[in-house]
TrEMBL record:
Mn(2+) binds at D170. This is Galactosylgalactosylxylosylprotein 3-beta-glucuronosyltransferase. It comes from the Eukaryota. CDD domains: GlcAT-I. It is an enzyme of class 2 (transferase). GO terms for cellular component: Golgi membrane. Its cofactor is Mn(2+). GO terms for biological process: carbohydrate metabolic process; chondroitin sulfate proteoglycan biosynthetic process.
Amino acid sequence: MGLLYALMQLGQRCDCTEHELLYERTISGLRGELHTLQQIMQRKESKQQDTGHLPPIYVITPTYARLVQKAELTRLLHTFLLVPALHWILVEDAPHKTSLVSNLLKSSGLSYTHLNMLTAPQRKLQEGEPNWLKPRGVEQRNEGLRWLREDRPSTGGASEQGVVYFADDDNTYSLQLFQEMRSTQKVSVWPVGLVGAMKYESPVVQGGQVVGFHTGWRPSRPFPVDMAGFAVSLRLLLERPEARFHGDAAQGFLESSLLQGLVTVDELEPRADNCTKVLVWHTRTEKPKLKREDVLQAQGQGSDPRVENVFTLARHQDLSWGRCGLMWLCVELTTGQA
């Protein structure tokens, strides 16, 4: 509504003299934004027509509450927005769905399913324990698999087409990766960068066949691959309802606990030019240091917990930036509410 209001004001002078220059510049910018939005809608309509025949990619992502959660999920969803025929299954490690994640998904423009599944207390990492000590995201990934098998809308045989990928919320993904995995027949595999204290880990391919694995830690594992390094046919997962991740799997064996119930090594389908290209990276966001925040909190001057909604609240409380309608519009555009 803010955008419509501004466009209706074209040709009218603002009653705030000091804002005249900003007013004119903003109107010009809005014309450009309107043109851009029209182009986006045209591309989206064209994209829907062109990709209707594509097998869908179901991406299962476990997530948990932390300072960088929204930043991580925002980056990830903007990657997913560029992938046609993708359905995001986001599973919170929480007793209930949080408003932060719910609001993010509602405004994302993605096809999605929002679930929650709390990790059992005995399987949670305790303060000071290293990340590798216990497998993480087990219950959440299994909940995503349960939804695919039990609750996913079904329309007959064609509804079993598709591929399932397990994408953590802190990794970095090339768009080409999703093109590579879409044609998966059983289980497809590829290299993963910056993992296992190595530049990359990867299947070793000879003559188009996986014959081994380039890894520095326990290469004798049944499937020494990273969670980001494989995708599974939806049909295969539906045919093997017992296949799941085992929470009691030994360190580094979580991926194997699922894959052993689906395929053998010689059935793996190498992608990314016979596993010679890295298209996904096991990145991590640096943990924020909040020493000054802690000091201010102790003084009773910490950050406003409503900051996620501060601009929306300002509008409702008539605290927007001045009387000029365009200033109100800037608030709306900033929060994505226009």
